[in-house]
Specification:
By secondary structure, this protein is α/β, with parallel strands linked by helices. The chain has 11 helices and 10 strands. Strands 1, 2, 3, 4, 5, 6, 7, 8, 9 and 10 form a 10-stranded mixed sheet that branches. Strand 2, helix 2 and strand 3 form a beta-alpha-beta unit. It is globular. The termini are far apart.
Length: about 300
């Protein structure tokens, strides 16, 4: 088997058929299997999956989150390469073929493609031009998002770094570590994956699980430092924790939001006292740089006024 496509499913009834259909209808010369793991859905997701039982492998489990569902799928997968697709997303007809061809051509452990952001409109999101990265020189890759779903990954890299159980942002841990271990990585400048942005999803509003991004960043930091990617892990603490997490906290309007942001700022600065001077921040958009200037200089009133109602 060339490719195993692993699909964790939880209450995805409105989108699941489009997801599975897009996988079944792949135009490829390569052999692939689809493994769907129903993670204790309470809607009609499992009923929908059973309508495809002659074409896909269906696993069921009690609800415990996407990490355990993906890990369960990996244990039965037989492919040389693994792909992960979320059950509310879908893919292009040439997703498998294009990604596998790139992996074989360049003898790559990981292939990354661009993706489409799907809301009320479909917008392509580019992560850079065609590039082949050798191990030890993947600085650019480590500043891309650590999504599981726009990647083809060699089996052994996935199995060496299972998804951590019982937490969100599990991709950050497993994918970052797999990238660090890959001998060669290919970046394709073509969007093949359709990522659906759901307004009330974990990544788009503040929930207790959002704080796992700090835990995930802490978990990958030792490996980054061991591979001499000091600037990159410092940048991730700024971008993922001081920017993404802290802005969500401010926007939530919860009591004590500013105090929380103060404490997170203090914690990051204790590890990375010069993080506001990180070399990659010079290339960030103006709004983000202004926000970071305010955070650096403790202008919390200004931050609250700007972000509270956005």
């Amino acid at each position: 088997m060339d490719v195993s496509i692993i699909v964790p499913v939880y209450n995805a009834e409105p989108y699941l058929r489009q997801c599975i259909d897009s996988l079944i209808e792949q135009e490829t010369v390569y052999q692939y299997e689809i493994i769907a793991i129903d993670d204790g859905s309470t809607d009609q997701s499992l009923t929908i999956l059973k309508q495809y039982q002659d074409q896909i492998t269906i696993l069921t489990k009690e609800n415990s989150g996407p990490s355990d569902a993906r890990n369960m799928g990996c244990q039965v997968a037989t492919g040389t390469y693994f792909m992960f697709v979320d059950s509310d997303d879908y893919v292009s007809p040439d997703f498998v073929n294009t990604m596998v061809e790139a992996a074989k051509k360049e003898q790559a452990g990981v292939v990354i493609c661009d993706f489409f952001s799907v809301t009320d409109k479909i917008v392509p999101v580019s992560k850079g031009d065609y590039q082949v990265y050798e191990q030890g020189n993947i600085n650019e890759v480590l500043r891309m998002e650590f999504h599981s779903c726009n990647k083809l990954i060699k089996r052994e890299l996935v199995l060496a770094h299972p998804y951590p159980s019982g937490m969100f942002f599990e991709d950050v841990v497993s994918i970052a570590l797999a990238l660090l271990d890959a001998k060669r990585i290919v970046k394709l400048p073509i969007a093949l994956y359709y990522y659906r942005k759901v307004t009330n999803s974990t990544t788009n509003c503040l929930a207790p699980s959002n704080y796992d991004i700090l835990k995930a960043t802490d978990m990958i930091a030792p490996a980054f430092l061991a591979h001499h990617y000091e600037d990159e892990i410092e940048y991730l603490y700024v971008n993922q924790v001081l920017v993404d997490l802290c802005i969500k906290i401010i926007r939530s309007g919860k009591p004590g939001a500013v105090s929380e942001v103060r404490e997170i700022r203090k914690r990051v600065l204790s590890q990375y006292p010069h993080c506001f001077q990180n070399k990659y921040l010079k290339k960030e958009r103006l709004m983000k740089r202004l926000y970071l200037w305010c955070l650096q200089h403790k202008c919390f009133v200004i931050i609250s006024l700007v972000y509270r109602n956005r």
